[in-house]
Amino acid sequence: MMKLKAHGRNTLNTEVTNISNHGFWLINAETEYFLAYTDFPWFKDAPVSGILNVEELGENHFYWPDLDVDLSLEIIKHPKDFPLQSKM
Description:
Blueprint: E1 14-19, E2 23-28, E3 31-36, H1 48-52, E4 55-58, E5 61-64, E6 69-72, H2 73-77
Antiparallel strand pairs: 1-2, 2-3, 4-5, 5-6
């Protein structure tokens, strides 16, 4: 018997709920986080579709494949503790 493995978007509870001129809100596990463009410049000029396309790779690990941005929840919660590795 052939077994099929489901492919597609991760169905964990992660979603971008709002995008503004200053940043966007990410909901994960019923908690909402604001990602300001000043702290996360990779998103500032990104297309809306790229920001909305977020995957939860594992607990507390998020990836935006269209933008090649990979962030942990710890970085999202405390961006000042993690100096930017890339300048836009």
